[in-house]
Amino acid sequence: MTPKTTGPVTHCQICGHTKLIEILSFGHQPIVQEYLTEKMLHEPEDTYPLNLVRCSACGLVQLDYIVEPKKVFPKEYPYRTGLTNMLLRNFRQLADTLEAEGLFKKGDLVVDIGSNDGSLLVPFKKKGARVFGVEPTNAAKDANKKGITTVQDFFSAVVVKRILKKHGKARVVTATNVFAHINDTSTLVRNVRALMGEGSLFVSESQYLLDTLEKTEFDCVYHEHLRFYTLKPFMRLMEMHGMSVVDAERISAAGGSIRIYAKRGKHPLSARASKLLADERKAGLYDAKTLREFGEKVRQKKRDLVSLLLECKKKGRIVGIGSPARSNTLLGFTHIDTTLLDYLCEKKGSPKIGMYAPGTHIPVVDEGRLLKEQPEYALLLSWHIGPELIQILRKVGYKGTFIVPLPRAEIVAD
Question: Where is the Methyltransferase putative zinc binding domain (predicted)?
Fold first, then answer.
C-alpha cells in the first residue's frame, strides 16, 4: 500500500509496512514556525499529534502524523538560513569539497531543493556554477534579490520539467535539511532522479538519528522533520527508485547530521559509508530496546531541565537566547513558558522579533534588550552552537550566567 502523504501515518513512509512502534509521544504541539502576533494570542491555536515511531520492517524512525505542507511551510515562513553562521560555513565546505573532488566545474548546473534564501548556492555560484533554487516560501524573494535564481514553488514534477526545459540536467542536486521534510518519498525521489544525468550527484543532509540518540536531542522532533534518517532505510529508498548511495558521512551541522551522496544506477558503497553502517548497528539504531531507552532518557531530561530552571528562577530572571524551530519543541514538551522565561532574544533582522513563540507565547525581542537589562540567566536554546554563542554574547557585553538545556541541563562556565 502507498504510504499516506497527509494526516495520520498508518504505513511506513519508505517501505509501506504497517507495524509502527511508538518510541516517544510529545502530545499535541503547534507548528514550530507558526509564530503569533499579539492579536492572534486571543484566538484559537492549532496543534497536531507529535509522536515518534519506528518501522519494524526497514527501521525508519518517523512521525506518525503529517501536517499539510502549505500549513508547515507557508509563504510567510520566518526562517532564514543566512542568519546562521554555522550553516553558512557548512555550505562553503560542501562547495569546496565537491569542487576539489571534481564533482562539478564552472558552467555546471547546481539545483538546491528547499533553497530558502539561497545561502547554499552562493558559494557554488562564486565558483562559476550555474545555480537554481526551488523554495515555496517568501525566502525565495530574498534569494532572487541577491542574484540566486529561484522559483517560488514546492518541488514537483512540473517544476522539474521547467528546470530541464530551460537549464538542462543538473550536475549536482542538493537537499539540505529538507529531504526529511517532503511528505511523499516516492514522488520526491523520482523528481530528484529526473533532474539528474548519468554522472550527476545527489547530496542530502538530514538530522542524523545516531546524533539524536547520543545527545538525547529530542528538540529536533517537530512537524517539519517527518523522518529521522539512518543509512540503511535511506539506501533502501534510493534502491527502490533506481539509485544507489555511494558515500555518507557524519557532519556537525544542526547538532549532528548525516550527509549522503547518491547517484543514478548501481554503484558500490564507499568504505566510509560501510563503516558508518556498521557503527549504526553497533549503536543499536535498529534495536527496539535502544529506542525505548531513548524515550525514557528524554522524559528524564525534561524533568532535569525544569528542576534547574526552577532553582535559577529563585535567584533571578531567565531569558532565552535564540528562538530556533527546535526550541519550540523543547519549550512545548517541557511546558516552559513566561512563568520561567521572560522573553526570547533573536538576532537583529530576524522576522520573528515582535512575535510570540507558538504554544508557549513567550515574546521574541531584539537581543539588544538582553544587553540593556542584563538578566541574571540566559538559556541557550540554540545549544548546539552554544560555545560560539557564549563568545559572541560575552564580546558584546552580556555579563550573566549561561544555562544549556541539552545534552544535559546545566549551568556552564565560559
Answer: 12-73
